[in-house]
Write a structure and sequence with these properties.
Arc Repressor Mutant, subunit A, D-Maltodextrin-Binding Protein, domain 2, seven-stranded mixed beta sheet, two-stranded antiparallel sheet
Length: 301
């Protein structure tokens, strides 16, 4: 049992600030303390818990596995306390910062157009949006919600499905004028097949011809790290790209891109989810507000 003079909520708040701000000095400034006082507080906390929470070096702090678990639970406790106080005082108004990780494609075509409505509905929420196609560790990156495409691997994460989209092969009219339109899998040998520079669930294009499915590999002359970059390469006539249909719908309607090999489509779809760390109880209102909004206005089709 903790000593009566131990203020555990203050300890937790300082520890969370150290983690989220990345050091003792910025945490001290935020808490109105000195860096040495923060360092001593964390040392006392570790001594009381009997576990090292942070690995310290001259350049950075890094959470230990015990520190990660403690940070996750403490963040939830503090968020629950804030929610309880708001519910007892000014009601269930969602307030606070939410860090969202998303691909550039989803951000540009789905999330960004919906943000004015969200910000109007939730004036107390601050969004920190990070764009990347890479799968990030939500705890290590201090991420509240991540938008992920493709099948989900078994994990401790909880997911809300945001719909699914077909994958289609497209090219710019200028590219097709120069190299001709492919009509068969064999024709693709003569074309630049643009790809992504990271591992995918299926590394290639599954196409069905004469009753058989063939995985057509991409070429390696030009690769890029995200789907939106892939779209821009196609728009510039660099090559063929296989891409989520919702990201090029407007381009096709405007004649900037054209679908090819529709008759060989193997019916592939990509599922989108909003994922978050399982809370084991009620979510903080700020995170719940983001998830509920994505379920309404962030759907992919």
């Amino acid at each position: 049992m903790a000593r009566p003079d131990v203020n555990r909520s203050s300890e937790m708040e300082v520890f969370v600030r150290v983690v989220e701000l990345g050091g003792f000095s910025p945490a001290a400034r935020a808490a109105g303390m000195t860096p040495s006082a923060v360092s001593k507080l964390i040392a006392r906390l570790e001594a009381r818990l009997g576990a090292r929470l942070l690995n310290r070096s001259t350049r950075q702090l890094q959470l230990t596995p015990e520190g990660c678990a403690f940070y996750e639970r403490v963040s939830r406790i503090l968020a629950d306390m804030e929610d309880a106080e708001r519910a007892a005082g000014v009601g269930e108004q969602a307030i606070g910062r939410v860090r969202v990780n998303t691909s550039a494609s989803y951000f540009n075509h789905i999330l960004a157009p919906a943000l004015p409505e969200f910000l109007t509905q939730h004036p107390g929420i601050t969004l920190d949006i990070v764009q990347t196609d890479a799968v990030v560790d939500l705890l290590a990156e201090r991420t509240d919600v991540a938008i992920r495409a493709g099948p989900l691997k078994s994990s401790s994460l909880v997911a809300r499905k945001l719909g699914e989209t077909s994958l289609i092969i497209i090219a710019a009219p200028s590219y097709l004028e120069r190299y001709g339109e492919p009509r068969s899998i064999a024709d693709l040998e003569q074309h630049n097949r643009l790809g992504l520079g990271y591992a995918r669930e299926v590394n290639g294009w599954p196409l069905r011809e004469n009753g058989e499915t063939t995985i057509v590999p991409v070429t390696n002359r030009v690769q890029i790290s995200d789907g939106e970059g892939l779209r821009h390469l196609a728009l510039c006539g660099v090559g063929l790209a296989r891409i989520a249909e919702f990201t090029v719908r407007a381009d096709i309607a405007a004649g900037r891109l054209a679908p090819v090999l529709d008759h060989l489509d193997a019916g592939a779809h990509e599922i989108f989810h909003a994922v978050y760390v399982g809370q084991g109880g009620q979510l903080p209102s700020r995170i719940r507000a983001v998830l509920d909004f994505l379920a309404r206005r962030g759907r992919v089709s």
